[in-house]
């Protein structure tokens, strides 16, 4: 068994910077989780009309309804087998805003049917997004979102492009600083920039069998439909 990220990238996985390669090797086969701790230099929002939507998403740990600078954060990438037998990796980000921390939860699985990694967002996995991975010339990992789907009970609908967000994520490693760097930008084809953040962090790799999956990390509800 290889990591879900190696499965989707194939031979291009070996073009990643060695530190990025290790970070995205987390999985049941490697037995490692990755815990990153660092600072978001900037968390930004688009125009004022997006704030109510970010606040609504924030109630289920989708996106971040606050903006700020120099915000400490932790990202937890922990592999486990979900209730449907799929290898899953958490991408749970906790931002230490003054007065109240904010979480942005995601869990990722590889979908053979869709031929890509599927990213479930939030505490209840109501939103599922196809993710497409590439490696740039510097060895950084670039992730672009594709189709979005909303699932709740019998409801299973594609989110129209008019209201959906197009996300671009770039994860790289700064050899000089000895830190991982991340840039996230979410925009809409009609309404422009919606949300994003950029920062850096150091990473600790831990043994999953010894550490386990801490309480509260997994979603409240798991969605079978990819």
Beta strand count: 14
- Gross morphology: globular
Radius of gyration: 17 Å
Percent in helix: 10-25%
Strand content: over 45%
Supply the helix-strand structural class.
mainly beta
Q: Low-confidence segments, ≥5 residues, pLDDT <50?
A: none
Tell me the distance between the termini.
Answer: 20 Å
Order of helices and strands: HHEHEEEEEEEEEEEEEH
Q: In this structure, how is the largest beta sheet organized?
A: 14 strands, antiparallel
How many helices? The count is 4
Q: Overall mean pLDDT score?
A: 94
Using brief descriptors, characterize the structure shown.
single chain; 226 residues; mainly beta; 14-stranded antiparallel β-sheet; 4 helices; globular
How would you describe what is shown here?
The protein is mainly beta. Helix content is 11%, strand content 49%. It has 4 helices and 14 strands. The protein has helices spanning 4-9, 18-23, 51-58, 208-211; strands spanning 32-45, 68-77, 79-81, 87-90, 92-95, 102-104, 106-111, 116-121, 127-135, 141-152, 155-158, 166-174, 179-188, 192-207. Strands 1, 2, 3, 4, 5, 6, 7, 8, 9, 10, 11, 12, 13 and 14 form a 14-stranded antiparallel beta sheet that branches. A hairpin with a 5-residue loop joins strand 3 and strand 4. The model has no long low-confidence stretch (mean pLDDT 94).
């Amino acid at each position: 068994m290889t990591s879900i990220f190696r499965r989707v990238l194939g031979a291009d996985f070996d073009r990643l910077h060695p530190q990025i390669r290790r970070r995205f090797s987390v999985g049941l086969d490697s037995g490692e989780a990755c815990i990153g701790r660092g600072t978001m230099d900037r968390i930004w929002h688009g125009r004022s009309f997006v704030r109510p939507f970010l606040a609504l998403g924030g109630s289920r740990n989708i996106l971040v309804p606050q903006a700020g600078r120099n915000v400490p954060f932790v990202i937890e990438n922990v592999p486990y087998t979900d209730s449907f037998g799929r290898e899953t990796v958490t991408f749970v980000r906790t931002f230490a805003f003054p007065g109240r921390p904010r979480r942005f939860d995601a869990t990722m699985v590889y979908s053979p049917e869709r031929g890509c990694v599927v990213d479930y967002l939030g505490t209840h996995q109501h939103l599922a997004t196809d993710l497409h991975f590439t490696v740039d010339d510097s060895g950084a990992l670039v992730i672009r979102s594709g189709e979005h789907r909303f699932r709740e009970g019998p409801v299973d609908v594609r989110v129209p492009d008019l209201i959906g967000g197009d996300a671009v994520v770039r994860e790289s490693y700064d050899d000089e600083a000895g830190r991982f760097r991340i840039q996230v930008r979410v925009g809409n084809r009609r309404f422009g920039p919606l949300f994003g953040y950029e920062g850096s962090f150091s990473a600790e790799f831990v043994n999953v069998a010894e550490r386990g999956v801490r309480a509260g990390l997994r979603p409240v509800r798991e969605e079978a439909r990819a």
